[in-house]
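FW: tagging you since you asked about this chain on Friday. Here's the raw sequence from the shared folder, copied in full. Didn't touch anything.
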Amino acid sequence: MNLLRNFLFQAVDNSQLVLFRIIFGFLITCEAWGAVLTGWVRRAFIEPKMNFPFLDFDFLQPLPGNGMIYYFLIMGVFGVMVMFGLKYRMAAISFAIMWSGVYFMQKTHYNNHYYLMMLLTWLFCFLPANWSHSLDVKFNPKIKRNYCLQWHLWIFKGLVLIVYFYSAVAKMYPDWINAIPIKIWFAQKVDYPIVGPVLVQPWFQYVVAWGGIAFDLFIGPALLWKRTRKYAFIASLFFHGFNSAIFQVGIFPFMGIAFGLFYFEPETIRRIFFKKKELFSKVQEIVQPNFQNAKTWAFTSFMILMVLLPLRHHYFDGNVTWTEEGHRLSWRMMLRSKGGIVDVQVRQAEKSYYVNLDDYLTPKQQRAIATRPDMFWYFIQYLKQDLISKGEGEYNGIYAVSRVSLNGRPAKALYDPSVDFSTVGWNYFRENMWVTRGE
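HL: got it, structure written out here
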């Protein structure tokens, strides 16, 4: 721990951290305001009749009316403040709190990229990324520094290595190796200009599948090694550029490219982006921070947690791509094509009827509860309360008939049709046995 502490608290040039703050601030601003301009906020929070927060986060509900539009507009303002380093700490904390609220408030549009963005926003709350090239320095020159500490950079480097590694490992399963999900996705993009005919070529689909594994597995080590760093960064430009053009996955491809900047020498960053920035000299006086041991343990604990979380799906029996148990927070990004339908039947003493899901859910939410067991269970709890409020609380059970296809296979039942879902709870730490183990 002493060796690790001495390494983490070594002073280094802060050019990479400052540059990433500027880029990250711009990207989160685009994410917030873009969500409003593209109608995503309206589709995710305003149009649905019910919401799907993370379990035990029921207290997080969308603001009424157009409140969520103003919510995202305010978030974008904090993003601009982070980018320019204006009241940086307050802006970073405010954005982190608000984005965490968005993340835990809804699962219909869950995305690993949103999880990564939440982690990054909280990390910035603890980092002095405004010590240079910021309005805070302009208004208070006393805080100006041309250095940061090693851990300020390695908290990002370590996280990037973990994300890419687990993304590569997750792809190492037969369906991906045989490019089956790629074939399904690309078949829907044949009408893309210029590239459409290429996307449906089997050889190209295998290139994308195997190339995705190779990129995720080797990009981290290649960026760390100086001899391959430039070529790895060029590969990152092509890889993320392709993903952005074909899959339209928001700001993540651009963030993925920006991560590569952490691995270049500070002299290179300064020469290209900060030509007038003062050179960092190791002989200058460095203010040593307090609580180094505690911070070293905090850094180590965070990294261990990031390593362990993606492994938790092994604790559950069954294929995680089918059961979804342990899928979130594990960097299992764009791995499978999964779709289906579910019919919900309410059985009463004198009659039985199927619930009209259109009365409760948007089409996207209906597709989500068909394939995501936790969301389906949450909907049943909502349905039970609604039936009680309408005076229909006397029923003999709520049952489900589901048909789900994974990677183009024949559809099977994901939920046990013999189970009365009005009586089952949700198990956090063991299998929910009403989820079939058929895949």
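FW: Residues 2-281+289-314 form one domain.
HL: agreed, and The first helix runs from residue 2 to 8.
FW: great, closing this out.
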